[in-house]
Amino acid sequence: MFKTILVPTDGSPRSEKAVSAAVRFAKEINGKIIGISIAEPHPSPLLSDSEFFGTTHGVGKNPHDLALEHVQKVAEAAAAEGVPCETVFVHAFKPHEEILKTAAKYHCDLVFMAPIGKSGWTGLFLDSETQKVLTHATIPVLVYH
What is the number of domains present in the chain? Predict the structure, then answer.
């Protein structure tokens, strides 16, 4: 049923657990993983990495380098299990749109993701990217908790 699985990651511990589960699932079904990470530029210095805004996981690194690191972890996890994997990273202000575009481009038949999105104070004001993917996806979305 599922052969090509899109696995978005933001590098969070929840995302890393979802990546591991997605790779195990893909191995069981002889599927393929498309790993994606989005470098989300901050629209203003106010939303830059800070403990106040709950975004300290990237202090000292630019979003581009973080996205590359996150997607590389997907590739490594897949390689360790012998699962075919391609990786994608993009720069975007709207990660959910890039997730959905990538799913269409690679003909994915499942999005397998952790609840990702804003955390800390920004999470109070900005919608979860996972919720946006769920709302707009035309293929099944598995949210791994």
Answer: 1
Cα gap 134→115, rounded to integer Å? 10
Q: What type of residue is 22?
A: A
The CATH number for 79's domain is: 3.40.50.620
Q: How confident is the model at residue 52 (pLDDT cuts 50, 70, 90)?
A: very low
Tokens linked to 132: 């946006």
Question: The sheet that has 32-39: what strands, in order across it?
Answer: 85-91, 32-39, 4-8, 110-113, 141-143
The one-letter code for the residue type at 129 is E
pLDDT single digits (tens) 93-130: 999 999 999 999 999 999 999 987 555 444 444 458 89
Full residue range of the structural domain in which residue 101 is found: 4-143
